[in-house]
Amino acid sequence: MSETIRLAAFIDKGGTGKTTATAHLGVALAREGLDVLLVDLAGKQGDLAKTFGVWGEYRELIDAGDAWPNVTTVFQDEWAAIAEKLGEAAVDDLVIETGEGVDLIPAHPGLDSLDADLGNIDDAAERYSRLETFLDEYIDPRGYDAVLLDLPGLTNNVSYSGLWAAKHVLAPVEMGPFEAEQADQLREDLTQMVEAFDVEVDLAMVLPNKVDTRTKLAEEYLEAFREEYPEAIAPEYIPYSQDIRNAVDGGETAFALEEPSTTAEDARDAFEADARALVDRLGGA
């Protein structure tokens, strides 16, 4: 693969399964043989780390004051000096192995103030490019094939930074009128970002998530999304599965289930198909 795939999971709405989709697509890419890094910028609650069952251990480091450097450190003016002083250990200390084939930079309570901290930077290019610089200079040399960013479920300086860095957006949506409106708004937001900052950001995949095709309404919305986003729509929708929710609550993805239900198996197959489509769309080998 010539370049690292970067993808930011984002839509200005919570509860669409953004974190679950990030985790499962990451594992699906790893099952395809890619080296994958996930970065949790979605909030201090650490949901990505919880999904892989590693939050408790990292939380102990946070409480002990030992979670430094962390994901917020890379946005600070001092990061370059820290990285120079610590060498490779600076990034080593950021990254956690999950046990499911993907690496993770977990969330940190410092994310609470990061939006305001970035807002204090007057120059927009400087404000939004810090994450991109970190990925370019410190993550890409580590040889990851794919970096997936889980962004906040609202439009703020952190999510703009993620969009700027990734250049490609994954938008998980549920089947409903409000989700359709949010997907339309996302498309407008990306257009405005391109015009305002001269940065190309594209909607790489609209991912219908938690779809219950037993209802006629869900089928109708699914077809509407296919018509509205013919090039961006994922090849496979992700069916609703209580098994996935139970797995995540238990600290693992559906790929780790030894006896998955039929819906969980269908969801795993769909995530794998959509992961392959992402590689094709984003220029991977």
TrEMBL record:
Signal peptide region: none
InterPro entries in UniProt: CobQ/CobB/MinD/ParA_Nub-bd_dom (IPR002586), DNA_Partitioning_ATPase (IPR050678), P-loop_NTPase (IPR027417)
Every CobQ/CobB/MinD/ParA nucleotide binding domain range: 12-252
One Pfam entry name: CbiA
Domain of life: Archaea
Protein name: Chromosome partitioning protein ParA
UniProt organism field: Halorubrum persicum
Record lineage: Archaea, Methanobacteriati, Methanobacteriota, Stenosarchaea group, Halobacteria
